[in-house]
Amino acid sequence: MKKILIYAIIVFFIIQFIRINKDNPPVKKEMDYTYITKAPSEVKAILKKACYDCHSNEINYPGYANIAPISWYIKEHINQGKEYVNFSEYGNYNQYQKEHINSALHRVIENKSMPLSSYIWMHKEANLSHEENRILLQWFSSLHINNKQ
Question: Where are the domains of the chain?
Fold first, then answer.
């Protein structure tokens, strides 16, 4: 048992040298979701605190993102989040993709499936209040209506 513990500690120490890339690509304001959609400041603030750490190029990595294998898990979640939507690159999406994104954003907020509970557990500020949910739902609905006109 003692040998296994020693080997586990050695492996844990060695994997700390396998670092994730935490560089954020440059952000162009004119490509950002909140700029393009002319989001009000309250919508922008909610999105920044609850969504941008996984769905943008403005990720603020917490201190525990320096510890492998936790860092690998975090990086994988961020990569997956950006595959669904990257708010920093919203300007690169075509009109159909933008409409789909806004519809999906409405749906995940309405279903309370985002932010993920595992994220909220470590980031209490991302736990959206009833009022913040209402604000986002109203905003996403208004975008959907405006796109149909």
Answer: 2-148
